[in-house]
Amino acid sequence: MDIDEPVEQAYKKLKSYIYYDNTLNILRHKISEFETGEDFEKKLGKVSKILNDLDSVEDFAKIIEEYQIDKTIMPKGISLEDELHSEDEEKFITNDFEASGYKAERTKYLVDADIEIHIIAVLWVMKVGYKLENNFSNNSYGYKLELSKENNNQIAKGLKLFKPYFYQYQDWRDNALDAAQALTKRGKDTAIIGLDIKGYFNNVELSFDKLRQEIKNEFGVNDDSNEIMLTNLLEEIYKEYAKSIGKENFEGKGLPLPIGLLSSSVLANWYLKEFDQAVVEEVNPSYYGRYVDDILIVISNPIIDQNKSSQKTALEKIIEKYLCDNNILNKSDKLKENQDAENKSDDDQNKEAESENKEKKSEYQITVQNEVGELVYDNLAIQNKKINVYYLKADGSQAILENFKENIRRNSSEFRFLPENHKIENEFKFEAHSMLYDDSVNKLNSIKAFRHNKYKASVYLSKKIYASRLWDKDSKDAKNTAEQIMKFFKGKICLEFHILWEKIFAYFILKEMKSEFVEFYSYVIKLIDKLSFEGDNTQEKKLKEDLERHLEIAAAIPLSLNPEFLDKEVKNNLVKKLKSVEADISDENIKLSDIAENIREANLMRHNLVFTPLLNYTNLARESESYINLTEKNLHKYYDNNFKDEKSEDIEEQLEFDPKLNEYSPRFIKFNEFNNYFIFKNLFFGNKTEGEDVLDNYLEESYGEFKEINDELGISIKDQDKYFELKINGEKVSNVKNKAKKVKAKKAPSSTKKFKIKELKVSDDESREKLNIGVANIKLSENDFKKSYRKNYNLSAARKEKLFRILNLSYTEKVNGNELDIIILPEVSVPPAWLSLLADYSRRHQKAIVCGLEHFISNNDTAYNLIVTILPFMVDDYKYSLVKARIKNHYSPAEKEQLTGNHLELPEQNFWHYDKFIWRDVHFACYNCYELTDIVHRSIFKSEVDLLIASVYNRDVNYFSNIVESVSRDVHCYFIQVNSSNYGDTRVTQPSKTEVKDIMRFKGGENPAILATSIDIIKLRNFQFVKYNLQKASENNLKNTPPDFNKEKVKERMRDFRYD
């Protein structure tokens, strides 16, 4: 059955949205089931046919009847049901959150519908909803659509439906703070009013008649148009959902918004259009911003009634002065019968009406009126508990704003740093658990409450997971962490923080902690069994079933990375544990493996936990008889466990990209991921065409796949030269997929090989007249090298901590207040398995990295010593990095002895390979230790570069010291050498007089560190350009350029900089 392109686009956008979402895991599972079914394309084709044949109400009824539209119930607040916890919370403070029973105080409804219904909702946004956004206020920040200016402000192609949540939320919040701060700086008193609409999505009373009228006006269409037909179908979907949550009496009242249906996000903004307009026009605030149902209003010079006889609080006076007097809000004088803000059933409301009557009378209702004086919103109120007013005197302390902004800054930078273990543990201990005081923190009697911080707990788990995926098992650390987790997620806290269950299971699976996995799973099942809800029995049963379903999927998502984790023994242990709750349970009732396999097949696992780059996109990820472990850190284990007896070409075929996984990728695949994939793939199999070497063409291969796969996703990829330009021996190379243009190589004097010198210019608008350099001072270990020869790389926590420390310091270290541009590490300092970490770090922080990798051992036991240069850049405000790996040309005699003594082969290459880089207008090249001993090789960049970098692991520091000083003067450039700290002579040298040649030089130290300095590129070029007489008269201490130095080359480099 034919699939319309818009239907396929809608499905891909839906899948991508859910991939990034952390709250709709049940929908994630439904998508995986939908896509992995045998009739996937038939189902998409059927949606196309349905939408092409829409004619009448009868058609709508058939669709609604065919597809499921229901609800999922999740708890929002949990109370403890026993005598111990009935005490006054402020007088009886405990860390015991377990009880004999748990009560769901409030619940939250989410839509539970077939994927076809979700596709229709996305299509409505793509075809109709986008037009409504044209009339939204600029003050509306949440769920902004990703529109294309080139396409008449319609939905942009590609995977995005909405702009990224974080940036929109950040703008909403920061703009309010900036507005308040600007007012106080101008000497004006300021009030920031924070409001939250109570149970917003569920209490909306959406009129589709009103919506249809606006659509007709916007599109200029009639009742028979596709836009109106699609809207009519959406209305029927919303009606069916309303029935599922007990709101059958919607006629004449309007319909609620189903949470989880993406059309609701657009309609949530459309519904409050009049509210936005009224606040701006009637209140005229200095700032007004709304993020869906969260509201911030900034008032300049607020007037507060100082009448002492008034019984109203200052907060009430401000709310009434600016919002009630302007007919935005008003206090409710009666209990609305249809108020259902907290998603409770009608029966629950009747039971609780009497006790809540007083509170509801004091609620502020939204009382905005239309042109004829009618209430626009009959059923919306502001949550009393979430009304906040921050009143700031201009001549008072601004600590509130400053501290709040500092906390934001600290939280936003939380993930810029790589997680160092000792810091994570302290953060969790002191921040995830918090005390509330009413007096001095030194007084025990000042403690008024003991709280758990969900955000901090989430951060802790995320950091532990991130770090755990990089290092090998550390049983002591893992045991301590598991103990912390089990103590924190007890009773009420465990149920309230159900959104974090997936992260807990992810940690246990990454650490292969099978007994802890079983223990936590069974513990949660027991908690759910003790959960009650003051609705009818059907509602309570549904709540429990949905929570168990959520648990099952939370465990299955990380399990999809390694389905073999749930072996027969684990299943049997789980069944034993669960029999105390469900006596008739058997391993056949446990569907974890089925769910995990669906998620795996649909590629909806967490890709950041896949260790080997893009392995989850290959045939190997799907077509094996038993699923491989995608978190495995050693490629050789895949080979030994699965393919040892297979032909090399068969294994290679398994590592080819799977077309369906590419076509329905839930995300944009980054360029550096393709770089890493092809580096490892080509080295592992020794791939090379006749007359070429193993890494000759991987950049071109990377770009070819990068463009083809992302183009297929609707993501526009520019031509290669917009990302990088490649020349080989001066001839430009354009991409032809999997095949680079052959160029002539240059003959090296006194050698049987020719040179292939690649010039790689990375596209970037930035320029550096001074380059800020961070040099790593780190001690390397011979034992690590010996392990690598046996394909058993040291990926310990201790080693990871050293690398993380270096990278974190590179972020905090500054040179004259400016951030570092480039970080340089020694030869063989990083395990190959961690290359993807460095590439991503470089991309995110836009810092270049030069380092040596430990020997990568291929499947035929060839040992590749690699120097890697990672260059970050920006294209259209998006961050990229390019990974250039080069095989060492000259292995040292001692290195050869070690490798051959361990039964390893040395690589055979047809050419001498070197790279010249042009990045941010700085020209430089890199050498790998023993290459510097070849007098011809170390002179090839004379007149060509501003800087040479040498990553070395070298005991003979005196010999290399002479080479460094010689090269710096002969090539006439800055020279940076980085060695292991125990051997030293790490230095930054310039071509100048002996007494001032070293800008920085050091040796020693046990702890990893970064030493920072800068080199003046423009000073060097200006000096090189002038003739001998002016060089001699110069006072900058540089040595004269050597004979035959090509000043035309310097002149070309000088054009790089943009002079005013």
TrEMBL record:
Region (Disordered): 334-363
All residue ranges annotated as the Reverse transcriptase domain in the record: 149-302
Pfam families, sorted: RVT_1
Positions of transmembrane segments: none
SUPFAM superfamilies to which the protein is assigned, alphabetical: Carbon-nitrogen hydrolase (SSF56317)
Keywords in alphabetical order: Nucleotidyltransferase, RNA-directed DNA polymerase, Transferase
Annotated CDD domains: RT_Bac_retron_I
InterPro entries tied to this protein: C-N_Hydrolase_sf, GrpII_Intron_Splice-Mob/Def, RT_dom
Signal sequence segment: none
Keyword Transferase included in the entry's annotation: yes
GO molecular function, one term: RNA-directed DNA polymerase activity
Annotated protein name in UniProt: Reverse transcriptase (RNA-dependent DNA polymerase)
Source species: Halanaerobium saccharolyticum
